[in-house]
Amino acid sequence: MANDHMLKFVDRGQAYPVKRAADERADDFREIADRYAVPTAEDQAGRCSQCGVPYCSVHCPLHNHIPDWLRLTAEGRLREAYELSNATSTMPEICGRICPQDRLCEGNCVIEFSGHGAVTIGSVEKFITDTAWEEGWVEPLVPGPARGQSVAVIGAGPAGLSAAEYLRGNGYDVHVYDRHDRAGGLLTYGIPGFKLEKPVVMRRVDRLKAGGIVFHHGFAVGEDATLDALRQRHDAVLIATGVYRARALDVPGAADSGTLAALDYLTASNRKGFGDAVPAFDDGSLDAAGKHVVVIGGGDTAMDCVRTAIRQGAASVKCLYRRDRGNMPGSQREVGHAEEEGVEFIWLSAPAAFEDGGVVRARKMRLGQPDASGRRAPEPDPAGDFTLQADLVIKALGFDAEDLPTLWGAPELGVSRWGTVLVDGKTLMTSLDGVFAAGDIVRGASLVVWAIRDGRDVAATMHRWLKAKATSGRVAA
């Protein structure tokens, strides 16, 4: 029986892929763990309890068919497992690498609740699709019958790429416009290689290009064309730019201290990984080598920065976060990896001022009453201040939307008070007819898996709208 392969969590312990030693992995930007061997993947997939209400799927933004492809993996039916995994996600091997599984699928695993340790869903997901690439099971993107309509996708991040794939599959001519010289957005330039090696992203992009999606690199809307010009050129437009404007650090001396924005720092490091010339890195400005580094923030971007600084050979790396460990927004796994690699976390602390000579005056904090979100709000602790030596300070305080209506010469584009683009809840269309939006530019800075979900959803609503437009055009003719 098929179930003979499952429900093995009682006598089979949880086992993640073995991580390389911390001192070894801190010397390079390779991923920190290799993937499973086939027998191990099958064994770990077989720990799934096949519960009647799969909380793993419920808490996955894509609602992946997780128990089903775990069962297929346990039974050795890897190609079927891949096909099922691929049915709901355009990038399963990327989600397997960078999703915060401890907050989503694995964190809601019934076996985790029973004290046996969650099924290692993300590692199995990565294994399945990596195997599919090696075995040639990943099929080319085959466009549907040509519809004679074209779509512009602004932004080549996960939301834009996901939507582009579905729209191309439905037979549209798809043009992706992106300001960078490579597609992928944060997947390419924001996330370090030790979490997501870049060939993994590039092979996805290459597949889309081979399927006939046209990429316009180095294209800045507002400079190379207005939004209105793109609307005239295409039958529909998707805004999927993400949010990139770094939040300001409102601390005395911050403007004069040379504080770096996290994304500038990470982009420079990733460009060096590609072999690009990066003058600001080569002159030392964006290189942590030999420096005492202080990173401010407690999200996943802050974790990316501290772990990058370690790999660049920093003399020391400290992370200041104003709440305690239990209240930080970043992945606890990432914190653990960073600690293993030599990062020092100074919890309940925040910068108070930047002084001459690379001195950061920091303030001790404590948790007060819950704020509007329900989290206990940090407040100054009477215990006082302390100082840190910092040759390089990186702010990782989150991202806000850029002022798209002004940048793009489109004052009629409706935005919220936070600058995110407003859309109709059902159609995902903006205030402009035929212009849709999806991903972080709508929901604010969020997870890659949500961007992929949003790209999938908006592609479906755009398809319906474009079909109706074509029909009405034929009737009018």
From TrEMBL:
<dbReference type="InterPro" id="IPR028261">
    <property type="entry name" value="DPD_II"/>
</dbReference>
<dbReference type="InterPro" id="IPR036188">
    <property type="entry name" value="FAD/NAD-bd_sf"/>
</dbReference>
<dbReference type="GO" id="GO:0046872">
    <property type="term" value="F:metal ion binding"/>
</dbReference>
<dbReference type="InterPro" id="IPR006006">
    <property type="entry name" value="GltD-like"/>
</dbReference>
<keyword id="KW-0479">Metal-binding</keyword>
<dbReference type="GO" id="GO:0016491">
    <property type="term" value="F:oxidoreductase activity"/>
</dbReference>
<feature type="domain" description="Dihydroprymidine dehydrogenase">
    <location>
        <begin position="26"/>
        <end position="136"/>
    </location>
</feature>
<dbReference type="Pfam" id="PF14691">
    <property type="entry name" value="Fer4_20"/>
</dbReference>
<feature type="domain" description="FAD/NAD(P)-binding">
    <location>
        <begin position="150"/>
        <end position="455"/>
    </location>
</feature>
<dbReference type="InterPro" id="IPR009051">
    <property type="entry name" value="Helical_ferredxn"/>
</dbReference>
<protein>
    <submittedName>
        <fullName>NAD(P)-dependent oxidoreductase</fullName>
    </submittedName>
</protein>
<dbReference type="Pfam" id="PF07992">
    <property type="entry name" value="Pyr_redox_2"/>
</dbReference>
<keyword id="KW-0560">Oxidoreductase</keyword>
<keyword id="KW-0408">Iron</keyword>
<keyword id="KW-0411">Iron-sulfur</keyword>
<keyword id="KW-0004">4Fe-4S</keyword>
<dbReference type="GO" id="GO:0051539">
    <property type="term" value="F:4 iron, 4 sulfur cluster binding"/>
</dbReference>
<dbReference type="InterPro" id="IPR023753">
    <property type="entry name" value="FAD/NAD-binding_dom"/>
</dbReference>
